[in-house]
Specification:
Structural class: alpha+beta
Main location: plastid
Helix content: 25-40%
Subcellular location: Plastid, Chloroplast
Protein name: Large ribosomal subunit protein uL22c
Order of helices and strands: EHHHEEH
Number of strands: 3
Shape: elongated
Distance between the termini: 37 Å
Number of helices: 4
Keywords: Chloroplast, Plastid, Ribonucleoprotein, Ribosomal protein, RNA-binding, rRNA-binding
CATH topology: Ribosomal Protein L22, Chain A
Subunit structure: Part of the 50S ribosomal subunit.
Number of domains: 1
CATH architecture: Alpha-Beta Complex
Largest sheet: 3 strands, antiparallel
Oligomer: single chain
Strand content: 25-35%
Amino acid sequence: MIRKRRTNRYTEVYAIGQYISMSAHKARRVIDQIRGRSYVETLMILELMPYRACYPILKLVYSAAANANHNMRFNKASLLISKAEVNEGNTVKKLKPRARGRGYPIQRPTCHINIVLKDLDVEKQYLYDYY
């Protein structure tokens, strides 16, 4: 069970990808490059990086932006990746058949990726109205 993080529900939206079949270490290598960047800049970075982890992360960023646009009416151009984290998931354990009837253990790691987007325009307006 994944606990939902406390976020400011007026200025932030998120997307969670669970049980993505790659190691958390390889996904963190890509996530560290996009944390704190704007949405448009993130798309360019992810499309040009040569790692296999970029595709599921790109899908999650698209999903979070679609959530922001549809649910909260945020403008995609003013979105910023405020939080991006990768946690380890379950390890899928299999046996691969080898010579003479033996089995060779295979371990496939999985990871959970959380991406939180923040709208800067709405946050400025929210803080202005609040104070």
